[in-house]
Amino acid sequence: MRARLRPLLLLFWLGLVYTVVSLPEHAVSLSETVAAKMEESGISNPVTAVLLNFRGYDTLLELAVLLAALLGVWSLRIASVSRQWNPGQVLDTMSRQLVPVLIVSAGYLLWAGTNAPGGAFQAGSLLGAAGVLLLLCGWRIDNRFIGLPLRLLLASGLGLFVLTGVALAAADGAFLQYPPSVASQLVVVIEAMATLSIGATLAALFMGGRPGEE
Fold first, then answer.
1. For helices 56-74 and 183-207, what crossing angle results, to 10°?
2. Alpha carbons 123 and 107: distance in angstroms, whole number
3. Full domain range(s) for residue 168
4. pTM across the whole model
5. What are the pLDDT digits (tens) for 171-186?
6. Which pLDDT tens digit goes with each residue over 137-167?
7. How many domains does the chain have?
């Protein structure tokens, strides 16, 4: 098996060497191009403008990869939601103090992402941390929300992203190319939904399997 992989590894290594050698001596900077198009993005923060507008495909694929990873974990086993946990007084007290702070901080990072460092992935990571802390304290999803509601929440970020792109393509013929007049509103809505789905996905990944009864 190893002998069969050696030619492929050699070709891969040669491709990397060729890529590095063929790089230009002076890298072309796109900062000026981004600065010139900031008004069209509807956002004052260049990082968010690049990730959600100019290179929206990258963020779309990142959400797809995150959801695919969760589906892979869910396909392996079922995580019980009825197991009893005894977190202890220290962890229980800490969770009661930290979870509200994490939720408020996530909301701030989401809102600040339009004109300062922040955005959906940072805010979603904080929500995911809050979910992990709750799971460590024994909190589990109610049976009423295990099925379709949970799946809709997990897929909402990617789904809204795709639906927005399809609607824009049908209206203007360009996928994920936001009209300047509504770009800011669309980005905020997409980021808000992506924050919720990212946080839920990270917490669900920590659970280690598809939630279900024993």
1. 20
2. 7
3. 2-212
4. 0.76
5. 876 777 787 777 778 8
6. 877 776 666 778 888 989 999 999 889 888 8
7. 1
